[in-house]
Design brief:
Elements (H helix, E strand, L loop, with lengths): L3 H16 L4 H6 L4 E9 L3 E2 L3 H11 L4 E4 L6 E2 L4 E8 H31 L6 E3 L9 H10 L13 E3 L1 H7 L2 H11 L6 E5 L2 H10 L3 E5 L3 H11 L4 E5 L7 H5 L5 E3 L2 H4 L6 E10 L1
Parallel strand pairs: 6-11, 7-8, 8-9, 9-10, 10-11
Antiparallel strand pairs: 1-5, 1-12, 2-4, 3-5
Length: 282
């Protein structure tokens, strides 16, 4: 669920960036008293995500504009399918078009990619999650799109949990020291996750009693061996170069979670358009 308090400033920044001191093209050509109806429709198949942002775009531009949503978030769209109808001042509809589509196309692209990958592993006891590899300033929207597509969210930020990675281990002179220091400084409700790259580090992480072990960039054979060694002693997460091509094979190793940065950094925006259906003077 997207909180209005969170999305309002994101949309405001996008509108300020795009409109500047005014939409001179629309204001020069379109009379102020002209009303219009526009249709948002899909031009390719995919999963819908981002309509609450579209509504917020038009609320901020002109709260008299009506956005009637015809397809729910997470719906699978067919080419040509109508997603929503927008009615109100033609000027307002045209001024908000690009920003509304920028959000909608990108968020739907993320949801579409996530759905494809999640469906590939739906018969395994394994969950697909995102990462923090998101567009600066848009993380909340991109992680929301992942959840709409059927994925789960990893940490939202650095304060959401302890994830000890290779550079932390290097600076701390080993996993044992890093975990001990983390436990000294965090509350008892926080879990500790450690990134490992070989069996030696797995044994160290298990000896420390960590909650989650992340298998980083391991081969399928290495992951299978790691799952056998770890068993139920920790939650097992696989990460590193996960794509549609190998996600099913990774899930088959028995890991509990698969995290993929590609969900939010290597997706294709969904082709969606806003077209004026008719114009009528008041």
């Amino acid at each position: 669920m997207l909180n209005k308090i969170v999305i309002e400033p994101i949309v405001k920044r996008a509108l300020i960036e795009d409109i500047g001191s005014g939409d001179i093209t629309t204001m020069s050509i379109i009379p102020d008293n002209l009303s219009a109806k526009a249709i948002i429709h899909a031009k390719q198949a995919g999963v819908l995500a981002g309509m609450p942002i579209v509504k917020e775009v038009y609320r901020q531009i002109d709260n008299s504009v009506s956005v009637e949503i015809l397809r729910s978030e997470g719906s699978e769209l067919a080419p040509g399918e109508t997603i929503a109808e927008i009615t109100g001042k033609a000027r307002s509809i045209l001024t908000g078009e690009r920003v509304a589509l920028n959000f909608l196309q990108r968020m739907s692209g993320i949801a579409t990619k996530t759905r494809k990958m999640a469906d590939l592993i739906k018969y395994y006891d394994c969950h697909l999650t995102d990462t923090r590899k998101t567009t600066p300033g848009l993380r909340i929207l991109e992680k929301y799109a992942v959840s709409v597509g059927g994925g789960r969210n990893h940490r939202f930020d650095l304060s959401s949990g302890v994830l000890i990675k290779d550079n932390h281990i290097e600076v701390s002179n080993g996993i044992q020291n890093a975990v001990a220091e983390a436990r000294r400084h965090i509350g008892h409700t926080l879990k500790i996750e450690v990134e490992v790259k070989n069996m030696k580090e797995i044994e160290e992480a298990l000896a420390c009693g960590v909650d989650i072990i992340m298998l980083d960039n391991m081969s399928i054979e290495e992951m299978e061996k790691a799952v056998e060694v770890i068993g139920n002693k920790a939650i097992i997460e696989a990460s590193g170069n996960i794509s549609e091509d190998n996600v099913k094979e990774v899930a088959g190793t028995g890991v509990n979670y698969i995290s993929s940065g590609s969900l939010t950094h290597s997706f294709s925006s969904l082709d969606i358009s806003i077209d004026i259906a008719y114009e009528k003077k008041k």
